[in-house]
Design goal:
- Helices cover 45% and strands 17% of the residues.
- By secondary structure, it is α+β, with helices and mostly antiparallel strands.
- It has one domain.
- It has a five-stranded antiparallel sheet with strand order 1-5-2-4-3.
- Helix 6 packs across helix 9.
- The longest helix is centred in the last third of the chain and has 18 residues.
- The protein is globular.
- It starts with a strand and ends with a helix.
Length: 199
């Protein structure tokens, strides 16, 4: 059975004790999660990525009230709580050096600071975002299959298919015609190389 935790602003769970209290109830299960942002943040991403057709791209983003979904992530072998903890809290030179910094933190740091070592700016940016998660309270094998299928459904777009939504910060499996995977990979490579020189 799938359970849903509503959209929450990250700044409200930045305190690790509050984070644990919020996620201990349902977050200790595998599932998937969505990162949401306000429109001004989306526009800033598009500006940083030097996107020309901004208005066209925004039309394909999933929208809920005044928020836009920018990233969908899954976790099958670990819990949602563990995965979100990596996105929100875990940041160190060791993680950067060993290439274990969370994918979402890598991307945010690369877009906005061009330096994966800039922990404070990365945290400040993440705090302005919103997160929502879904978990599956059922046997691991069954849950894993459902979660993987959900990821495919979200990112399944064929090159010529404009019907599905665009999750602009997703890289792997992102086949939407307006995906920014190539630019994001380049930014992350440059950012990591710059960081490694400073370590």
């Amino acid at each position: 059975m799938m359970k849903h935790f509503p959209i929450t602003k990250v700044s409200e769970i930045r305190n690790e004790q509050i984070f644990n209290e919020k996620l201990n109830k349902f977050g200790c299960l595998p599932g998937f999660y969505k990162w949401w942002a306000e429109e001004n943040f989306v526009q800033e991403i598009l500006f940083k990525l030097e996107v020309d057709n901004k208005e066209e791209i925004v039309k394909y983003l999933e929208k809920k009230d005044n928020l836009f979904c920018i990233y969908v992530g899954i976790t099958t072998k670990r819990t949602v709580k563990e995965r979100l903890k990596e996105h929100i809290f875990k940041h160190s030179d060791r993680l950067i050096k060993n290439n274990f910094l969370s994918t979402f933190r890598k991307t945010i740091a690369s877009i906005f600071t061009n330096n994966m070592r800039d922990v404070n700016t990365t945290n400040k940016i993440i705090d302005s975002l919103f997160v929502e998660y879904f978990v599956f309270d059922e046997p691991e094998e069954s849950a894993s299959e459902k979660i993987k299928q959900i990821e495919k459904e979200y990112l399944k777009n064929k090159t010529e298919d404009y019907n599905n939504k665009l999750y602009i910060l997703n890289i792997d499996l992102n086949k939407h015609p307006f995906n920014q995977s190539k630019k994001l990979r380049k930014l992350r490579k440059e950012s990591r190389e710059k960081s490694l020189k400073e370590i």
